[in-house]
Amino acid sequence: MSEENAPLQLKSQKFREAREKDWRALAALVDRAEKGQLKRFTTEELLNLPLLYRSAISSLSMAQSISLDRNMIGYLQALCARAYVSVYGPQARLTEILSGFFTGLAQALRRLWAEFWLAFVCFFLGAVGGWLMCAHDSSWYTALVGHSAQGRDLMASPEQLRATLGGAEKNDWLAVFSVYLMSNNTQVALMAFAVGVMGGVPTGLLLIMNGMMLGAMLWLFVERGVGVEFAAWLSIHGTTEILAILMAGAAGFYLARRLLFPGALTRKAALAQAGKVAGTVMLGVMMLLVLAGIIEGYGRQTITGTGWRFAIGGTLLVVWVLYFTLAGRPRRKEV
Amino acid sequence: MVAVKRKERDLMASRLTADLIPEAGLRTVITTPEGVRLAFKAADFGTRVGAFLLDYLIMALIPIALIILYLILPLPYLMKTENWNGPLVQVLIILFLITLFFVRCGYFMVFEMGPRAATPGKRVMKIRVIAHDGGQLTPAMVVTRNVLREVEFYLPLTLASVISGQGGGGWPILVALLWTAGVGLLPLFNRQQARLGDFLGGTRVVHVPREVLSYDLVNLEAERKVGIVFSPEQIAAYGEKELQVLETVLRERRQATLTAVAVRIRTRIGYDTPPDPRDVTPDETFLKAYYAALRSHLETRMLLGQRRKDKFDATR
């Protein structure tokens, strides 16, 4: 280095001197945000955070091209990373996410329409199969429904069966049972989705098995002449619940399809994209299941009229169909 | 043997630098919405297993704690047998079931949707979840990455326990365990240490460390007073990689390392040591001067778009 012309500071040092104050200010803000004090920020601080973050980001990209001070670049990288997760963290735009969620959910499900119908067919065929199996040999009933029979077994008389549908028995453990069912159904739904990564066949089997259970129960009640009451009892929460399980199955099939046929994307990219769409649907599934659980716990005991049960179940079904087919559709421009 | 000799000959051999440069290790690079590439240090497998075990410990302790609480609370109302079917017991059982349900299905999701994007176990290990596409971490991503735990962890274990419970055994259990092991060890086979749920959810788990901004090692005023001058050939002996190692050595200030590195550099650049030991510049002063000269030289070249990666780089 020729000493006469040597600058007293390197360019990278001048750069650091000019910007260090901003970095320190950002670090102080991020420290506080990390401690969960974001809500106590003043308006000025809140407005400053993204500005300082962007300036730190630009400092980093500049530093990477003019400076070889590893400590400084490392510091900036860590600072930008921390600021990034504060600015783009999950809490940042909760209201924004919520406002877009309900249109996004319907749009996501419409992208899975083929998978949804496949899930529907699996479930429906399972139900028909379950019915036929029980009609052929009634010992199938215990094998299919067994563990969740709750007094709806082959020995039950029509009166006893009707009693399992009614709301008269307040002392019974129906509310507890409905919570148990909700958690059980959620697990079935989560499983139907997750096993999609195994190629979709397990998802189909799961749907068929659940369909068979329903078919067997239907057979028993129709056999004993209380089919209409059973359908009413089922419809009040079942329209929501079965829809949710079908949606979960559709999400599982979608994963399987994108895994096996990633199309123009790389398999990794296709899976990430599928996971996003399917995750949105699964969020909806969980909401529907919780709603079904609430209806099951309350409505099934308080609303006992067959007509009312059909009316409520039917109305919910219509609401869901309208919502999932219409919400978030781009409006046609009038010419 | 040849490799070992080369390492001995030069402290700045690649083995040393590999440990010192974090960019060379496990990392996740994301592109932020501003278009800047940010490198995160990926949470390594051991850390993730640690966080996982901690979380499962908590998940197992919650119901146990609730049962103990129920047993030690001497509610006289509950003690009467005729009340065992009463509404209060039912409410308690419903609450218990809902808690179990939360623990089983919602624990990971709720915590990862929270402001810290980390479960308690992850927070202890100082790691968190980020979106791999650089955008917002959405609830849908969190749901997907956690629902996949069903196939990664719960399903094979349930199958194995059901099969062994039915008196079966042998190969189905082996298959279940192999599946768990295969899927569970997936993070070991990619640089970002992502598991199946991470790939599907489009998420990654990373460290977000704090770094301290230290002082700048170059002080040109001081160097001018010391007055060590290097010829252009001497400065051109090394590249950016060696500069970074030198920086680490200078910041650590361990005397043995300083001496060793100073000896290597003097030998390599052919720096003449004065015959009288009293005239010899101390090792740290010498290294600082060389660091300043090398960095100034390399940064100038950098501005002209001529970067020199390391001493083996042919561009001069």
Structural topology:
The complex is a heterodimer of chains A (335) and B (316).
Chain A: H1 11-34, H2 43-66, H3 70-87, H4 94-111, H5 113-136, H6 139-145, H7 158-165, H8 174-194, H9 201-223, H10 227-260, H11 267-302, H12 306-326
Chain B: H1 2-9, H2 14-20, E1 27-31, E2 37-42, H3 45-72, H4 76-79, H5 87-113, H6 120-124, E3 127-131, H7 139-147, H8 149-165, H9 171-184, H10 196-201, E4 203-207, H11 220-226, H12 232-235, H13 240-252, H14 255-269, H15 283-303
Antiparallel strand pairs in B: 1-2, 2-4, 3-4
Helix pairs in contact in B: 3-5, 5-7, 8-9, 13-15, 14-15
> How would you sum up the major sheet of chain A?
none
Structural class from helices and strands of chain B?
A: alpha+beta
Structural class of chain A: mainly alpha
The whole-number mean of residue pLDDT values of chain B reads 79
| Helical content band of chain A | over 70%
Strand order of the largest sheet of chain B: 1-2-4-3
* Topology order of chain B in helix (H) and strand (E) letters: HHEEHHHHEHHHHEHHHHH
Largest interface: A-B, 79 and 84 residues
The figure for the number of domains of chain A is 2
Largest β sheet strand count, sense and barrel closure of chain B:
4 strands, antiparallel
What is the string of SSEs of chain A from the N terminus onward? Answer: HHHHHHHHHHHH
The figure for the number of domains of chain B is 2
Radius of gyration of chain B: 30 Å
**Overall morphology of chain B:** elongated
Q: Could you describe the 3D structure shown?
A:
Chain A is built from 12 helices and no strands. Chain A has 335 residues and is mainly alpha-helical. Chain A folds into 2 domains: 11-92; 98-326, no CATH class. The longest helix of chain A has 36 residues, at 267-302. With 316 residues, chain B is of the alpha+beta class. Chain B folds into 2 domains: 43-207, no CATH class; 212-303, no CATH class. Helix content of chain B is 59%, strand content 7%. Chain B has 15 helices and 4 strands. Chain B has a 4-stranded antiparallel beta sheet. In chain B, a hairpin with a 5-residue loop joins strand 1 and strand 2. The longest helix of chain B has 28 residues, at 45-72. Classes of the chains: A mainly alpha (335), B alpha+beta (316). Chains A and B meet through helix 1, helix 2, helix 3, helix 8 and helix 11 of A and strand 2, helix 5, strand 3, helix 7 and helix 8 of B.
